[in-house]
Write the structure tokens for this entry.
Amino acid sequence: MKPLMLQGHERAITQIKYNREGDLLFSAAKDSKPNVWWSLNGERLGTFNGHGGVVWCLDVDWQTINLITGGGDSSCRLWDLETGKNIATIKTNSSVRTCNFSFSAYQAAYTTDKAMGHPCEVFIIDTRTIDDSISTQSPILKWEITDSKVTSMVWGTLDETIITGHETGDLIQWDLRTGKKVHSIKEHTHQINDMQLSRDGTMFITASKDQTAKLFDTSSLELLKEYKTERPVNSAALSPILDHVVLGGGQDAMEVTTTSTRQGKFDARFFHLVFEEEFGRVKGHFGPINSLAFHPDGKSYASGGEDGYVRVQSFDQSYFDYTFDYNRD
Amino acid sequence: MPVADDIQSSWADEVEIDQGALPPPSEVVENGLKIVTEYKYDNDNKKVKIVRTYKIEKRVVSKSIAKRKTWSKFGDSANDKPGPNPATTNVSEDVYMQFITSKEESQRPDDGELDGLKPQTSSVIFKCRTCQGDHWTLSCPFMHSQLAQAKASEAAKAAEAKAPATNKYVTPFMREGGAGRGAGREPPGARRDDVAAIRISNLSNCAVEADLDDLVKGFGPVQKLYLAKEKSTGRCKGFAYVHFKFRADAAKAIQTLNGYGYDHLILNVEWSKPPQNN
């Protein structure tokens, strides 16, 4: 299929996400305006104007009513999706690196960077009613993380825990009633760039700069599978319908000039979930892929790259016909 | 009489205006297709017509999605018309998934940082015609020596030997281990001296001993060399005998030189036969 090229950003894409039903695709970039697109035809629904700098993260609630974004202008913003209005702006001490609605969207979590003399902090806010009072309301819970910066985060089962991925490669599960660590593991040696839940939320996949992506159990943080590549992995996503994993990455932008320009480094790479073996690649980007997302129906996926483009690629029939050869012995 | 006011501009100006103005863009919707036609200048300042054809589809979706579809555009897209705006949305070229079989993947060497820059030392795509080495025929070090010929044929033989036996019919004579007449077989009653002797015939009349020496010295040490000459003229009679030190060298020489073109003649080389009349 011919991919759709979405050229709404002037700078590198930082994160892309579909809403629950998959009709809308959200993209955030290092320019200040997150975009929302109709995923079917790539038509742009609108832009969310208001941030004053890079937007690191975004998330949409399950009913597709509100959007939360966090950026380098030390603010976390909530938006009304129908009109694109900025409902509330939460000022923070340093830039907001990750933000996520909980499954029920009754709460949201965001984390800030360790910068400008301020520590890395995790905030849980109440988002049952979203209006401008959120800008001033104090968080339900907040705690400091002293050792290393949080670079990615997902909500755990039943909105009882959150799992943070760190700059050092640590994964920590936090209990939201107490704000204390439940589990802490270190399976990665470098920064965890991205974490994405499986469709049912029982597993999540991490993408790390140590050139691997790993699959973990959400409740016990048990390491289940490992997918190895030979380049830093910036993003990994799990197919909602097949036992497939897609990995995207490439060298850091600063290292691109010192290494070979082989196109293959910027491919989206498909691995089998269980056998941990690569079976396919899709070319397209001319820079590292920064963020990947499967459409909730599993029939297409989107990738956002350092080149500033979002590519929405529908799968051909050959993808669905492909079966992985293995010995049953 | 034409009135001066009627002439509003000279024809030259008109032409210029025509060139500057582009026809207005048009949009036609007909039988499920939307056709948008635009004009613009390309990099070479030439007028370009761009026709984009969109297929209008109807899809059945859930209520919530249908409701969202009625939302009006906002932010930087507030002024966009319905349908994708070509400024932000494009369809790029076909990209297909490349499937990788697991074997290829595991056998492939680790992607080196500078893979593409390495010279292709391991997989040479050309081969010397003379000696089968990793260089061009022109720069072959054995180019002028007969040794090379021998080498080449040896290589060819090795390759042949490696080739699996076909189930073609082979005459008993040609079969491996069959009675290879002549070559390789010691003539009965041969004198010890003649064991490594070969007879070269169909030599040119102008051949001299030095030529012959050149021809055979590549194969190994030569014990004796006899070029038959016409007594009266001193010219070559057309054949010669060469006694090698080793039989193997002689066999090699026969194999290589038999049928070898030398001085516009094709040489005939065989084992020297013992004199029949004794």
In short: Chain A has a mean pLDDT of 89. Chain A has one domain: 4-321. The longest strand of chain A covers residues 120-126. Chain A touches chain B through 54 residues (CB under 8 Å).
